[in-house]
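## retry 2 of 3
previous attempt timed out at serialization; input unchanged, resubmitting
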Amino acid sequence: MKLGVVSLSLGFMDFPETLRFVGEIGGKTLEISTADGVHSGSLDFSDQGRRALRELVKSEGVSLTSVAGYSDFTLADGVEVNKQLEGIRWYCQLAADLNVKIVRVMGGNPKEGLSKDEMVDNIISGFKRAVEIATEFDVILALENHGMLVNDGPTLVRIVEEVGSPYLRITMDTGNFCWAGNSVDAAYEYFKQVSPYAANVHLKDFVYDNNEVKFVPLGEGLLDFKRIFKTLEDAGYTGSILCEYEGVGDPRVLIKEGVFTQEEIVTDIKNATRRSLEFLQSILEG
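## retry succeeded, writing output
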C-alpha cells in the first residue's frame, strides 16, 4: 500500500510546496484537489498546465492516486443532471490527462421535499449515466461516504450494486461515518461492508468533544487502525492509503475565510499530518 495525503488538507500551501512537503514526511502519493482557491491558486488545469503538472509530479517522485471530484445527483431534474454529468466528464478528462485512474465523487446533499429513498434512487440513476463517461475514459468513480445522506454502509453498497459497473467503486473515509452520527461500533461494521468495493481510502481519526466529532492526528483518537487495515486486507484492498487531517475545520471553508494565513493553524496542520504519516508507517512496518 502506498501512503500519502489528501492534498486539500494541505491546501494552504502552493502545490509544488505541497509535493515537496509530502515527500519530506515520507508520503508517496496524493489525491489532488480541485476546490476553488486551493493551493494558493497555483494549480493550472489548462492543457499546457496539465502537461507541466505531470512533469512536476514526476520530478518530485510523488505519484497521484486520485482526482478529488464533486457531484450531486440527488435531484432528477434533467438540466441539473446534465450539469453534473458535464462536471464528471471534466474530472475524468483531467484524470486521464494526469494519468490518474480514480476520481473521487459524491452522492449529494439532502434536498427539501424529497425522501431519502427518492434521493438515493436519483443518485443511482445519475451514476448509471456517469459510469458511461467513466468507461469512455477508463477512469473509476469512487463514491465517498460524505455528508448526511450517503454516509452509511448499506446505502453505499446499494448504490454501487444497483449501478452495477466496475467503474463505480467507493472512497472509504474512516472519520465520516461517525461525523454523520453513527456509533464507532456501527462504523467498524460499515468498514466491513464497503471495503470489498473500495478503490480509494481516506484516513481520519477523532475523539468526541461535547458529543461532537473532533478530528485529531491518526493514532491519537478512538479508531483502531490495525483493525481497519485488517478489514481492508481481508477484502483484498491493495490501493493507496491517504491521510486527511481536518482538526482545525473544513479546508474549503478555511480557504474562503482566509484562516490559512494564520501561522499557528498552518503549523498545527503540518505537524498533525507529519505525525499521522509516521503513525501509519509504524503500523505497516511492525
